[in-house]
Amino acid sequence: FTLVFYVFQIALHHIATVEKLPITSLGCPLTLRCKNFRVAHFVLDSDLVCHEVYISLLKLSQPGSYDSIFI
Hey, which residues does 34 pair with through a beta bridge? Predict the structure, then answer.
C-alpha cells in the first residue's frame, strides 16, 4: 500500500497538521504539513478510508503518552 510507505517516510513526530479536504471527482484529498516544511498530498478513492487515515494520523502524530502509541 503506497500511502503507508510515504507516510512512514515522514516521521510521525514531524507531522504538524493533517487536513482532510472536501471530496472531489478524483477522490478524497488528504494533506500532511510537516514541522520541517514538507507537504505531502494524497488523494484516496474512498471517503471512509480517507477519514480512517485522517483520524489515525491525528492520533499517532500527537500521542498523549508513550502507552497510547502501542494500544
Answer: 15
Q: Are 31 and 44 in contact (CB under 8 A)?
A: no
Backbone dihedral region of 14: left (phi > 0), alpha (psi from -120 to 50 degrees) or beta? Answer: alpha
**pLDDT tens-digit series, residues 10-27:** 777 788 899 999 999 999
pLDDT tens readout for residues 46-61: 899 999 989 988 888 7
Asked whether the CA dihedral 7, 52, 32, 64 is positive or negative, the reply is negative
The closest alpha carbon to 58, from 23, 21, 32, belongs to 32
